[in-house]
Each structure stands twice: as C-alpha cells, then as structure tokens.
Amino acid sequence: MQSVGIYEAKSRFSALIELVEQGEEVRITRHGKEVVRMLPVRRRPVITDEQIARELGQIDALHATVRPAGEAVATPDTLRRKGRSAA
C-alpha cells in the first residue's frame, strides 16, 4: 500500500495507475487524511457457479426443515401441558 498527497498524486498519476494495475493499493491524502483509495478492479467473477450451486443446495436443505405455514405453532401453555402429561 502506498500513500501520497494530492499534489504528488497529480504529478505522478500515470505511475500510480500502473501501480494499481499491478495490484497495489494507493491512498491519496489531503492534509494527512485519506480522501481517495485506489484499488485494482477484480478481473474474476466474485462468485463461481460452484459456489452458487452449493448455496442453492443449502437453501433447499433449509427449506426442508422449515415447518409449513398450516401447522399450528406450539404455545408455552401447550408445551407445559404436553410436558406434564409425559411425566
């Protein structure tokens, strides 16, 4: 990572762009405070087809564990009665 002031960045802009293209991060400051961060653009996709398939499989597995909307929700009172009858 390289940090330069605005004046220097203006003077060396092409060289800084080349650094970013090589994967370097460049920060431009004004009075010592960062105002710009230059990062290389990702050339590869953020997520692969395999990752998408895996995530969709996990979503399907989660859907299988979710109770259908028609089932009654157990209330605390129902659970107490159930527990007492089992004892």
Give the helices and strands, then pairings.
Blueprint: E1 2-5, H1 6-11, H2 13-21, E2 26-30, E3 33-38, H3 49-65, H4 76-86
Parallel strand pairs: 1-2
Antiparallel strand pairs: 2-3
Give a quick rundown of the structure:
With 87 residues, the protein is an alpha+beta fold.
Describe the structure.
With 87 residues, the chain is α+β, with helices and mostly antiparallel strands. It contains four helices and three strands, in the order E-H-H-E-E-H-H. A three-stranded mixed beta sheet has the order 1-2-3. It is elongated, with a radius of gyration of 28 Å. The N and C termini lie far apart (67 Å).
What key attributes describe this structure?
4 helices, 87 residues, alpha+beta, 3 strands, three-stranded mixed sheet, elongated
Low-pLDDT ranges: none
Query: Measured on Cα atoms, how large is the radius of gyration?
Result: 28 Å
Please work out how many helical segments DSSP would assign.
4
The residue fraction in helices comes out at 40-55%
Oligomer: single chain
Order of helices and strands: EHHEEHH
Spatial order of strands in the largest sheet: 1-2-3
> What is the CA–CA distance across the termini?
67 Å
Q: What structural category arises from helix and sheet content?
A: alpha+beta
In terms of DSSP E residues, the strand content is 15-25%
Count the E strands: 3
Q: What spatial form do the alpha-carbon principal axes imply?
A: elongated
Biggest sheet record: 3 strands, mixed
Mean pLDDT: 87
